[in-house]
Amino acid sequence: MLSFGNKEFRNLQEQVLQNARDIATLKGRENLQIVIVEELPEVGNPNYIYLVPNESEEEANVYNEYIWLDDEETYEKIGGVSIDLTNYVTLDTDQTITGEKTFSAIYIDTQWKIYQSSTGIIYLENVGQNAGLKFERDKLFPQATAYTSLGTSSNRFKNAYFSGNIDFGDNAIIKKDSSNRVVIQFGGTDIIKVGSTSSYVKASWVPEDNNTHDLGSSSYCWKDAYIVGNISDGVNSVTVANIASKVTSSYASGTFDSNGESSFVIADETPTGLFVFTYGNCQCMFQLTETMVQNADVTPIRVAIPMIYNSDTVNGWLEISRSVYSYTVTITDGTNHVDSGYAWTLTKTNLL
User: Fold this and answer.
1) In 187-281, where do the E strands start and end?
2) What tens digit of pLDDT does each residue of 177-190 get?
3) Which residues does residue 283 pair with via DSSP β-bridges, in sequence order?
4) Sheet of strand 273-279, all strands in order from the earlier edge strand to the far edge
5) In Å, what is the CA distance from 318 to each residue of 146, 276, 298, 330, 334?
6) Are residues 303 and 279 in contact, defined by beta-carbon separation less than 8 angstroms?
7) How many CA atoms lie less than 13 Å away from 318 in the CB half-sphere?
8) Could you report the per-residue pLDDT of 27-51, keeping only the tens digit for each?
9) How far is Cα 15 from Cα 34, in angstroms, rounded to an integer?
10) CB-hemisphere CA count at 13 Å for 305?
11) d(CA 243, CA 221)
């Protein structure tokens, strides 16, 4: 159905109504509308003037005009008119619009319409729902806040390319800085910066659930951790420096002489605990108990340790002897394989 309002269609209405003006059957009818149909419906509307294509191919009479008579339940032909609708579009059938045409609004059925506002914004609007899209030069935005989604959970866009920021409102922004790092910003402050080789966090990093999530895993471990303050389980707290002193401490070091020996004296101390001896690429651990070192004046303690000679591992010995409260620790390869000047270290752990 066409409802005419512009100048050309008003002229068309006047032409058709002029043909029907003197017909008594139209007297008393108001709000007449013109309807173009391919054929007359079985029952008509008394307020419509139906235009049916004239099959006689008379150029001056392209359409025949009919009205519906309720009393007789039939149509009355009231005339014919030649109408050129080249520049007009009906929206009840699929049509292609060609050439330049001007519309105040285009309705797509009764739910959607396209129109331009006085400020030049193009609207694709869901009639009566205050929802749709707005087009303003280089901008595309929803007609109302929080009404329009870009894709759905089952129908997604593949890629999105941005050169600016993503602004979620409420001071939450994702952007790219001058170093090509992805930045999450909140309240005007850069909170997280993710770069090609490292990331930066400028906020407390707190898990949302207590005692639930891990930092790394047995298969994917963090390499190094650099901590200045404390480590706490929520109840007990300890500094990193204190942890280091609890784990290991340098106990002794030296170099071998030409005989493959190196000695040092411990005064007023009982060398008990877990020790680590390191020489070249060799490393071994051994434990000394208080009973062992107290009896070292009677039976010196001998601990086998691996040592390197010509890229092979050979037997060496760590021997502890006691005289009153002084202990002499001698490290030797046992067969004079070690060259003069080779260094060794002895580290004490505090794990036991």
Assistant:
1) 189-194, 199-201, 230-232, 237-239, 248-255, 261-267, 273-279
2) 888 889 999 888 88
3) 278
4) 248-255, 343-349, 273-279, 282-288
5) 77, 11, 16, 6, 10
6) no
7) 26
8) 556 667 888 888 899 888 888 888 8
9) 11
10) 28
11) 20
